[in-house]
Write a structure and sequence with these properties.
The protein is an all-alpha fold. Helix content is about 65%, strand content about 0%.
């Protein structure tokens, strides 16, 4: 089996990481240090979009971010995090250069971004493997990771958590308070009419969450009784 940290792959990936790092650093430093701003009028259909990005300050923000992300890649600091942010920037470049303004130079730029970012994400794919879970369960960063098999309550002996009444009260209180806040700002403190898409999302989420809690209580009760009987 091919392993990314062994054989020639190790150094090909190292070259890719350095290449993409320098690529980002070059772009960011050109703007931040030398004040280089492309002539957006020559960017075809992308020009007006890039001009407005610069007007609102988003273009400079991206350039400074490129310096930070390029440095992280260059010095091997939190590379998966850097690649996750880089993917967002790369997606925009790929879309604009391949589909909006597909001239020869832009076609190469978009293809290069697709290859560099895509291959690096593949090379560090082990770090992103946990993202591809069909039925992902929540877990705080400090919780110990468990496999799908050994992490199940039946194997670890962990008690099945059943929704309690105070959980429901807390959930309802949070949802109602936030709905009031949403209504207040969405209607500009009553100066605009109230519409369903102002209060609908938080209230809809509350109903779905309460339904799930109810189903959890129904499903957990028999298992808890069986566990208590077995322990007795």
């Amino acid at each position: 089996m091919i392993k990314a940290e062994q054989g020639p792959w190790k150094y090909l990936i190292l070259w890719l990481r350095y290449y993409y790092a320098i690529h980002f650093l070059k772009s960011g430093i050109n703007f931040a240090v030398f004040g280089v701003i492309p002539d957006f009028s020559k960017a075809g259909a992308v020009g007006p979009y890039m001009h407005e990005m610069n007007e609102v300050g988003f273009y400079p923000l991206v350039k400074y971010l490129e310096i930070v992300l390029g440095s992280m890649l260059l010095f091997n600091i939190l590379v998966p995090v850097a690649l996750a942010f880089m993917a967002g920037i790369a997606f925009q470049i790929i879309y604009l250069n391949l589909f909006v303004s597909p001239h020869p130079r832009q076609l190469f730029t978009g293809t290069q971004e697709l290859l560099l970012c895509g291959l690096l994400i593949l090379a560090y794919g082990k770090n992103f493997a946990g993202l591809f879970q069909l039925r992902a369960k929540p877990g705080f960063p400090w919780q110990q990771r468990q496999s799908a098999v050994t992490g199940s309550p039946a194997v670890t002996g962990m008690p099945v958590y059943a929704a309690r009444s105070k959980d429901m009260v807390l959930l309802i209180a949070v949802a109602v308070v936030w709905t009031v806040v949403v209504i207040g700002f969405s209607t500009t403190m009553g100066s605009r009419p109230l519409r369903i898409y102002d209060w609908g999302p938080p209230m809809g989420a509350l109903l779905l969450a309460l339904f799930t809690m109810f189903m959890d209580r129904r499903g957990s009760a028999p298992r808890l009784m069986d566990r208590e009987a077995a322990q007795a």
